[in-house]
Protein 1
Amino acid sequence: MKKIIKGGTIATATDLFKADILIEDEKITQIGLNLSAKDAEIIDASGKYVFPGGVDPHTHLDMPFNNTVTDDNWETGTIAAAFGGTTTILDFCLTAGEKNLADAVKKWHEKAADKAVIDYGFHLMVSELDDATLKELPIILEKEGITSIKVFLAYAKEFQATDRTLFQAFKAGKQNNAVIMVHCENGSVIDELVNEAKASGHTDPIYHALTRPPELEGEATKRAIELAHIADAKLYVVHVTCKEAVDEIIKAREKGYKVFGETCPPYLTLDQTELERPNFEGAKYVWSPPLRPKGHQEHLWNALKAKQLQTIGSDQCSFNFNGKKQLGRDDFSKIPNGGPFIEDRFSVLYSEGVHKGRITINEFVESISTNAAKIFGLFPQKGTIAIGSDADIVIFDPTIEREISAKTHHMNVDYSAFEGMKVTGEPVSVLSRGKFVIKDKTFVGQLGSGKYLKRTSSPFTEKKSKAVASTK
Ligand SMILES: NC(=O)NCCC(=O)O
Ligand SMILES: [Zn+2]
Ligand SMILES: [Zn+2]
């Protein structure tokens, strides 16, 4: 089956040019002017941008967490992702509480296999590394094509790893050429601050933010950086939210350490005052690390622009407001942590970034797609528009103006963290390996059509990166 995308403006991490794209079966086979092919379906993209499909390196679909489970599963989550212009997700496979790593991965395959409508891979999330797990780790990484391991330094009562486990993970990462992803907050000190706040009678959602100050993100980021450096491991700091953490990443990169950083749309666009909303509505904005006071957002934009942060994750981890978020009605520490972002990641970054002139269109593509594909070993199959790449393509209308709302989104959640935000630009059609998943804003994909992606370690992560600019 052949398709030609005609008349669009192709944007990659490095180029912006008008050309047609010939797709044969699942791959891009030609890029050029005035392409034609017998029996090809013609897709008119004039006046539109043609982007590589978004690569979201950070999702939690159907994940047990905070005594409950996230509300978007692999069906609703991947359909919403596709509507939003994302064609690949990397989800965290939880291993805590499982008999062994193989069982944990099997469970994650079962969640995803007949539901996913876009391609996907797994990161392995570990809380403890006993001898048996350390022995099994290389076998699973190799067999499953997994190149990334996740460690939490937060959530003292659930997933938090000790510094010993973190260091073991870095050593295992070094031995197996895997990137170690770390949630950097000091969970033990946060636990203490939460107990103090509760003892003083504080129950409101805002105390979620007040008990997780940016200094504790900065401290944990520095700790992870130093331990990774001692182990000569590759570190990827997930969901960076504040100046304190960004500055540690910049210092490390200036020294040539192998450190990468991710931020997320809410940290770039919202601030801590959202948690002060009355009638418990602040709970809609409870996730970790929390939203920060005004000022941090510009610092994150500067770091993204300066390429000190490389990727944009959604950190999709949704809980209904009139449902599971109510678990914390009388106690902020019981509000399930997380928000619904998978669908708006692409459009919010385009609108707030490119449309508002904070980043260029190439920087947008780099951080929404290409860099995640490179860091996690999917490039050039994913993350770009090139001959031989998978035909994962977003046809994007940059002229559409709309308001984000839970009334029109496709996530299985009764609220939007971006409710009422005016954005410019919207994906109108999305192809995954040459097949439409979204056509003219309508879902036309098939449950289970998404393929599991085996990955290989990437030379991109070997590069000792030098700073190209500093943020103020
Ligand atoms: N971010 C959040 O609050 N929930 C998801 C788990 C995590 O990434 O920390
Ligand atoms: Zn996290
Ligand atoms: Zn997360």
Protein 2
Amino acid sequence: MTSARDIRPRTDDLAAQAQYLSTSPSASFHSPSSHGSALTRTVPVVNAKHLKPFATEDIKVLLLENVNQAGRDILKQQGYQVEFLKSSLPEDQLIEKIRDVHVIGIRSKTKLSARVLKEAKNLIVIGCFCIGTNQVDLQYAAEHGIAVFNSPFSNSRSVAELVIAEIICLARQLGDRSNEMHNGTWNKVSNKCWEIRGKTLGIVGYGHIGAQLSVLAESMGMSVIFYDVLNLMALGTARQVNTLEELLREADFITCHVPELPETKGMIGQKQFEQMKAGSYLINASRGTVVDIPALIEAMRSGKVAGAALDVYPNEPAGNGDYFNNDLNSWGADLRSLKNLILTPHIGGSTEEAQSAIGVEVATALTRYVNEGSTLGAVNLPEVALRSLTIDEPSHARVVYIHKNIPGVLRKVNEILGDHNVDKQMTDSRGDVAYLMADISDVSSTQIKELYQSLESLSSRIMTRILY
Ligand SMILES: NC(=O)C1=CN([C@@H]2O[C@H](COP(=O)(O)OP(=O)(O)OC[C@H]3O[C@@H](n4cnc5c(N)ncnc54)[C@H](O)[C@@H]3O)[C@@H](O)[C@H]2O)C=CC1
Ligand SMILES: O=C(O)C(=O)COP(=O)(O)O
């Protein structure tokens, strides 16, 4: 199929047009997510147009990293061509595969760098079926009109519950006791095993996960302090501290819930371990770059840190198998030899509940973007949506024009649209990129073609799509 970005309508017959035009809006979609996400903010129109979308079979979708069945089903039900792989791909294979797809769905492992995205000539949208979007070059994507969606909090509870479990496991050395029993050793000890009641939990990054964790920890009798770059409302009796150092000096358990950013790289390193209380515990289920692992190994060997739980690593394997060795991370064997260290394979968000909720949420956002052009919930483009076209508007078309945010563009666009009846129009910008949607009524296929060509010829153009 010809590029969905290169949407060139032809007038000879409907089927041929369908090949070049994106789909009609289907207003029946609303996010089934129970969390009231941005997607649920649009009110469904009662007499919305439920057309069989044109040419959805031409939309090619590549899903990597074992995206949940619920999400796959939604995309297949649209008639899209869906290719599904359980693991991520090495860069050369990814580049081959990404060349002709319109939609790609990934999780935390797949790196969509500018180098990879440069090859993705047909790509219109990326779905991160997870929370983190650090694996995608968001700026490059925006500048090339590629929308990026994620699921901002569908797995937050799963991560918070895992951390609660780990706090108790570390305090009671449960991992070691269990391993010993598996090896046939009875080792009944109470030395340096603690209750968590009355202990202080220090949360670094008090966002969706940190805040959820705060409530759970307090309900088990812990005192909670947190450090965040933002001034945030403390839940329950939690208390915000002014500096990371203050948190490290006070907390018995420290847990990291910050995104991967240049500022959070190596945020917990040798200096920070020195500032911690003797015998404290560290948990990292955020990103592998946040904790300096060789420094952690030293701090555990010296006894400064009494236990740790790691769910994320600087280098993670592409799929399941026997990979957690020194080839992957040079300190792998040293890490594995430590006592009271829980190592998990990036499973913070890996629960049935989280994965199916994410599948539905992100697949729905992708479908709405492909079919209707709605960017509600996009992480790299301005959020723009128009109410759905209705059954009373059979010959309406929706213009989506992504353009450089420079002076004079709207005047030129409106000169082009001005010959038609513009029913509704909305535009917004984010940084260097602006997103315009306009519904125009009573347009013929020939006019759509002309509109498309005129918009494409503007120097401000990043991407034009015409949906009907
Ligand atoms: N292990 C796993 O499976 C999972 C890991 N994650 C990771 O957890 C991270 C956090 O997730 P959420 O709580 O949903 O994110 P969030 O965006 O809701 O919260 C992050 C918080 O960190 C704060 N922050 C940013 N930079 C900071 C800094 N330098 N110092 C202190 N605070 C800083 C922000 O202000 C914000 O309050 C995600 O970005 C993702 O990388 C998320 C889900 C699952
Ligand atoms: O949601 C996130 O950011 C996570 O880290 C979970 O990633 P995953 O979907 O398990 O690859």
